[in-house]
Amino acid sequence: MEPQPGQDKPHLPPPSLWPIGFAIGVVCILVGLIVSWPAAAVGAALTAIFGFLWVRDVTKGYQRPDAGVEPAVGGPESATEGAPAIPADRGEAAMPPPEPGETFPRNVFLEGATLGLGGVIAGIVTVPILGFAIGPVFEHKHHHEIDLGPLENFKEGQYVVATFISNPSEGEISRRTAYIRNNGFLGDKPSFTAISNRCVHLGCPTQPNGPLFDRREVEQHTKSGPVKLVPALPAGGFGCPCHGGQYDQEGNRTAGPPVRALDRYEFYIRNGRLYLGKTFSVASVSGSGANAKIKKYRLAGPGQHVDGFEQVLYPLQPPS
Amino acid sequence: MPGKRSRKEEMMRVAQYPIDWLEERSGLVGGLKYFLFRKVPRDSGWWHTLGSATLTAFLVQLGTGVILAMYYKPDPNGAYESVQHITNDVTLGWLVRGMHRWGASVFIILMFFHMARVFLFGAYKYPRELNWIVGALLLPTALLEGFSGYLLPYDQTAYWATVVGININGTAPFLGPFLASFLRSGSEIGGDTLARFYSLHMLLLPGAIIGLITLHLYLVVRLGVSSPPWSKEAAGRERDETPAPRGAGLVTPAPRGAARRPADG
């Protein structure tokens, strides 16, 4: 493929593999600048070598020994020395006209390479961005145990509305409320009922249907931050102001739109203090107090069925 | 007075020059004229202005929103105070916040009126089906703007309304719990939720709306405005007033003005 007089077709360099080595060299330089100087030097050498080879390849057609003289090898009609250049449309065609059905593999290759490389670049950019956006959905949350203070504040058979910070690093926004009742002992083990106040219809805060004894309120500062305990007498169970969901004293739904019983907290006792752990979901509770039988399920969002036929609608739960 | 006239012409030429300069190099002036001075059916009226009204309401939201973003702090401990600061302290802050807050409702209401007009006029029919579809995508995008913006004042109403809204999303079968978790940015509402809603509210969703409106307007310009149903003209031609045969369209569509079927006697 040599440049010919009277031919103004664009000069197409032959395909060359050197740019690949050149690109690898550039990458080595960039990585080397961060990681180690020798790697950068190797990269620079690679870049120089492959760059030279590439340029040599590309300019092959122009490297003629008889520079300055019009080439005389263009074909029978080519110009003789000193003659005016032949107009572009008169000169002999540089390439034979394409035969019917002939393809242009370079075009196809370039098109494919553009689309393919573009796709790869778009993917390289998009995947981490998407992962960044939806990552929190699949992350396991660290659960902080909640210290509700000494057991003396929980009188047997008495409901206490406990308000606490569930995650000290998040602060006020993680304030949660639980209904705690000391059930006395089941055998030799202490029994507590610890119900989350979040309505399992759509997550509004429920309230006790009965008086709160504000004067007997206990405010204390535990290692979970401020904890407020207000004794209550939820004679009518618990009710949600948003859409009218009603629950009995064990958290079973009695009326309204909720689809299951109120969620509960795991609890444990250490050094005479009551701690709350993770939350779990409850389909229903039979019995009451220490003898209650709780159908326990993995924590599900409000409004989601955990038992019965409808549970097939929520086969998977994101980690909580 | 040839001198005076030539001076006037000279002035006009000077005024015209930058416009011509721009037109010659970009074609933008011609493009703007093509966009603004379109032919519309002679009997189009006030009903046809609801789309422009919706667009104006959106532009008001855009303008006021940009300014509000200069004062608002999307931080759980500072969001409420910053909104109080905007309302009570910043010059005309009460007005701009009020425009944004009420303008949001105006935007949605006008959008519904516009949709009702298009539906009742039958303006969604061929060849404008695609524009109806674009509009049908614009509506939920705008509603999502309302949902994400509602959390930002970060008062009790905002917080609990968003709790309920996210949990409604969570009750969708199969992927609902994951959608809710995505909106919450985790299993609990926290500081990230507010920042996430803020980002959705002022970057992603407005961008989507601008893109969809651009497509919407492109189709309006390309296809033209439809005549109202009472028009004597259809697409610039006399309307064919031949009554359709009885029973036509019940089972198979009959062509307009088709001869009555023998069975009709």
Describe the structure.
The complex is a heterodimer of chains A (320) and B (265). Chain A is elongated, with a radius of gyration of 39 Å. Chain A contains three helices and 13 strands; from the N terminus they run H-H-H-E-E-E-E-E-E-E-E-E-E-E-E-E. Chain A has a five-stranded antiparallel sheet with strand order 4-3-2-7-6, with no helix packed on it. Chain A is α+β, with helices and mostly antiparallel strands. Chain B is an all-alpha fold. Helix content of chain B is 66%, strand content 2%. Chain B contains nine helices and two strands. In chain B, helix 5 (93-120) packs antiparallel against helix 6. The longest helix of chain B is centred in the C-terminal third of the chain and has 33 residues, at 191-223. The N and C termini of chain B lie far apart (80 Å). The chains are: A alpha+beta (320), B mainly alpha (265). The A-B interface holds A 133-134, 136-137, 139, 141, 166-167, 170-174, 202-205, 242, 300-304, 313-320 and B 76-77, 160, 163-164, 166-168, 170-171, 173-174, 176-178, 180-182, 185-192.
Helix content of chain B: 55-70%
Reading the helices and strands of chain A in chain order gives HHHEEEEEEEEEEEEE
Arithmetic mean of pLDDT of chain A: 85
Structural class by sheet pairing and helices of chain A: alpha+beta
